[in-house]
């Protein structure tokens, strides 16, 4: 029979090694809104060498001076837009914006965005998404994306080979593809389309916008979309806590059964960008589905009047962590290699127990 001291010591050690029970409760740990919205973002400050877009992602100073990224004084909302006032000559690119958060956010996070307008128009390719710094290692999660004059938002994952969408629990039946590997079908990803025409473009604006919610959990990745009239009170009230189990069935779901989250995903930067043409919006076969003419020649070149609707209007972006944790990871720290604060705390507890036992 063990003495009481040893029994107590073993109990403490076992408690330290048992992972916390998965939770659906989350507490807000960071917000981007109002006059400080653009704090803690990096502006890409380079031409689009990522997706071959006919765009230049400007610096923060150029974005401010050109009125491409600013706070609307009448609403206190953030505006991110394509330059629609300059005349772009042939063989030149048009100015626009790509920003990503300085911090990364690890598994156990929920990210919400409240938008009143999203970019749309021929040649326009906007996205609200997240990506690990070493992509494709660490994966990518697309919450909002579309091109040209499509009417429905698409969502999806892009990962290393081996991740698939299986046995999903979601409201959308529009599943474009289930293989998430960036090596499959020219990096199509495992894509689900939102059946609501209020989720993108003119329909989104006419409905007064809405909110996207993304849960990045050990059990899988889920995305909800709520048009303005249907936003739950817990979200519209900007509550400091949310319980995702009260949000109903997500519109898109990628369970861990087909794609182990710890294997394929690392802490993510949040990204907002608008590019033009490029690998997705520009190919002739895709462009012709919703737009006449030629992507670059007929839209990017010229006086920019085509881009009057090519802007985000954002009330807020909020980051939540599983209650009792903090999933904010600064830069490429140890957490970017897959360690969460709770995991580190557990290991420190184990080491402490071993040291105490040996002593």
TrEMBL record:
Give the residue spans that cross the bilayer. 336-358
State one molecular function term (GO): hydrolase activity
Q: Name one GO biological process term.
A: glucan catabolic process
Q: Where is the signal peptide?
A: 1-23
Which keywords does this Swiss-Prot/TrEMBL entry list? Hydrolase, Membrane, Signal, Transmembrane, Transmembrane helix
Which Gene3D superfamilies does this one have? 2.60.120.200
Please name the SUPFAM superfamilies in this protein's record.
Answer: Concanavalin A-like lectins/glucanases (SSF49899)
Q: Which PANTHER family match?
A: GLYCOSIDASE C21B10.07-RELATED (PTHR10963:SF24), GLYCOSYL HYDROLASE-RELATED (PTHR10963)
Task: Provide the protein name.
Answer: Glycoside hydrolase family 16 protein
What is the organism field in this record? Answer: Laccaria amethystina LaAM-08-1
């Amino acid at each position: 029979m063990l003495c009481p001291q040893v029994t107590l010591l073993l109990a403490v050690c076992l408690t330290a090694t048992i992972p916390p029970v998965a939770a659906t409760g989350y507490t807000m740990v960071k917000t981007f809104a109002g006059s400080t919205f653009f704090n803690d973002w990096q502006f890409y400050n380079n031409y689009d060498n990522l997706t071959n877009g006919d765009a230049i992602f400007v610096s923060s100073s150029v974005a401010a001076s050109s009125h491409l990224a600013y706070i609307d004084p009448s609403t206190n909302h953030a505006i991110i837009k394509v330059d629609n006032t300059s005349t772009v000559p042939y063989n030149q690119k048009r100015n626009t914006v790509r920003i990503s958060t300085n911090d990364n956010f690890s598994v156990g996070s929920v990210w919400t965005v409240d938008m009143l307008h999203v970019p749309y128009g021929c040649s326009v390719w906007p996205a609200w998404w997240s990506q690990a710094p070493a992509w494709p290692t660490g994966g990518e999660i697309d919450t909002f994306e579309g091109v040209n004059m499509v009417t429905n938002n698409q969502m999806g994952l892009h990962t290393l080979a081996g991740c698939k969408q299986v046995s999903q629990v979601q409201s959308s039946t529009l599943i474009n593809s289930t293989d998430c590997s960036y090596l499959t079908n020219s990096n199509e990803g495992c894509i689900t389309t939102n059946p609501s025409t209020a989720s993108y473009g003119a329909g989104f604006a006419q409905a007064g916008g809405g909110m996207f919610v993304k849960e990045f959990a050990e059990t899988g990745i889920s995305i909800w979309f709520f048009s303005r009239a249907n936003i739950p009170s817990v979200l519209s009230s900007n509550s400091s806590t949310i319980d995702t189990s009260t949000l109903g069935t997500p519109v898109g779901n990628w369970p861990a059964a087909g794609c182990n989250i710890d294997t394929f995903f690392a802490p993510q930067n949040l990204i907002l960008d608008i590019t033009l043409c490029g690998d997705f919006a520009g190919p002739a076969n895709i462009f012709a589905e919703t737009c006449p003419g030629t992507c670059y020649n007929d839209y990017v070149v010229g006086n920019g009047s085509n881009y009057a609707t090519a802007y985000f209007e954002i009330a807020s972006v909020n980051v939540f962590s599983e209650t009792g944790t903090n999933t904010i990871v600064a830069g490429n720290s140890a957490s970017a290699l897959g360690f969460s604060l709770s995991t580190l705390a557990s290991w420190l507890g184990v080491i402490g127990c071993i040291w105490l036992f040996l002593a």
